[in-house]
Amino acid sequence: MDVTYDATKRELSTDQGTIRYHEAGDPSAPPLVLLHGSGPGVTGWRNYRGNLGFFAQTHHCYVIEFPGFGVSDPVEGHPVLTAGSSVIRFMDALDIESAPMIGNSMGGVVGVNLAIKKPDRVDKLVTIGGVGPNVFSPSPSEGLRLLQEFTDEPDRDKLVRWLSAMVYDRTLVTEELIEERWQAAIHPDAQKTAQMMYGSAAFEMQQQFLAASDTPPYWSMMHKVACPTLLTWGRDDRVSPPDMAMVPMRLIPEAELHVFPKCGHWVMIEAKEEFESAVRAFLLR
């Protein structure tokens, strides 16, 4: 099976621009939708390129590139909301009635929101950090503060500090990774999305909105997630510390929690084999 970038890349034209994605696996196998996270230089391919070949052995995999991150065409609106609508638009276009989903960080939040609002579209859900509120740890976390500093005034040193906070093993932050992320992070679409999500001004506006709003936060609605859910977490996650898992673990009726030692925010990369084994068992159960 050829799961290289060029062999798996695809394009889908929609009424809101082009959605780009990666596809691998037997078309007759059950579908699996993979949702990427956020942060400088992120793409779905970079999140899951190391796992795609594994999951494509049992599933027909789709790695969606969310609008506004420099790959798919941008659309107006908040990135988390436009990501969710792009998933439904994508599934409708390819006649995917429902599918299990794997969501990394922001992608997990997107998956939770879809499971709440469109429960018939999400069979099972796997999250990788990122979902729920900080219970004991400071908010924003160390990793999010470093992300905010980079977003306000991007430079390579700030990018390296943020990348180092993403992992337990800092040898994973190679010069190749730094250069790859830096080139993608300075894309105008990616910078605009980052400012909307993590810039200091946007963060302050979000806090004021939450204080004045009667709308409950998404995590308080997680009791409505009806599908079986596997919460995966790095024990040493400095972006979304593992105390955040307490709320989704309690509220989601069919939630399981798997914590990986000596592992940061990128569980699917840093604990690759262990993560893949746990997720495959959950999906095939």
TrEMBL record:
Ranges where the AB hydrolase-1 domain occurs: 30-271
Query: What InterPro entries does the record point to?
Result: AB_hydrolase_1 (IPR000073), AB_hydrolase_fold (IPR029058), AB_hydrolase_sf (IPR050266)
Q: Which PANTHER family match?
A: HYDROLASE, PUTATIVE (AFU_ORTHOLOGUE AFUA_2G14860)-RELATED (PTHR43798:SF33), MONOACYLGLYCEROL LIPASE (PTHR43798)
Entry-linked Pfam families: Abhydrolase_1
One MF annotation (Gene Ontology) recorded for this entry? hydrolase activity
Name recorded for this polypeptide: Alpha/beta fold hydrolase
| Keyword list, A-Z | Hydrolase
Species for this entry: Gordonia tangerina
Is Hydrolase set as a keyword in this record? yes
